[in-house]
Design goal:
0% strand, 8 helices
Length: 245
Amino acid sequence: MDASVSEPDSLHVFTAFSAMHLVAAGVFVALLVIGAWSARHLRGSAREPRDRWALAIFALAYWIAYNTWWNWNGLDLRTGLPLQACDISGLLAPFALLTQNRTLRATLYFWAFGFATQAFIQPSLTVGPAYILFWAFWIAHTLILSCALYDLVVLGFRPGWGDYGRALLVGVIWAAAVVRIDLLLGANYGFIGDPPPDIAMPPAVLALGPWPQRLLVMAALGGPGFLILLAPWLAVRGRARASTT
C-alpha cells in the first residue's frame, strides 16, 4: 500500500450517528444547557441588556464571518448563498433579541427548535474536527439555539397560537422564494429543490421521496412539527388557568 495514502479516520471524516457525532452533539448540547442555566439570574437584572447585546453582536459577527469564509474563494450560486433555514435563523436571531419584535421572536423559536436541532440529530456534515468547517458548523447551530434559549429563559418569551401562525407564514414565504431560486440555479437550499446528482442529499431527505413528492411531504410535516413545539406552552397555560379557577 502507498504510504502516502491513509485510511479515513474520525478526525478527518464525519459520519452521522457515529461516536464522533454523539460526542460532538453531546458536548454542544451540554454547553447549551450550562449556558441557559447560568443565564437564569440575568432576568430583570441591570446587566441583562449588556449581556443580550453582547450575545446578539457576537452572533451577528459570527454569521458575517462564517459566510465570508465560506465564499472566500469565490461565490458558487448553488451552495454559497445564505438561504438555508439555519442561515436565515442565524441572521434573524440577533435582531430578535435586540428588537424583541414578536414576528422575529416567533420565527426564531420555531425555526431554532424545529430546524437547527436537526443539525444535531442528522447533520449534513462530512468532515471531522481536523477541519475548520466541523467547528464552524457546530458553533453556528449552537449560536442559533443559544439565542432562542436566551429569549425563553431570560426574556421570558412564551409562544402562543399567534406566534405559531407568524412562524408558519414566514416559513411559507421563505419556501416559496427559495424553491424558485433552487429551480433556477439547480440548487438545493432548504433541501426543497430538485438538484442535479453532483449536489449531495442527506439520507433523511432522500427518504421523503423524489421531487416534487419530497416538497409536498416536507410541507405537510411543517405545520404538525411546529404544533409539537407549541404544545408544551399550551399545556402550561392550561394548567395555569385551571389552578386559578
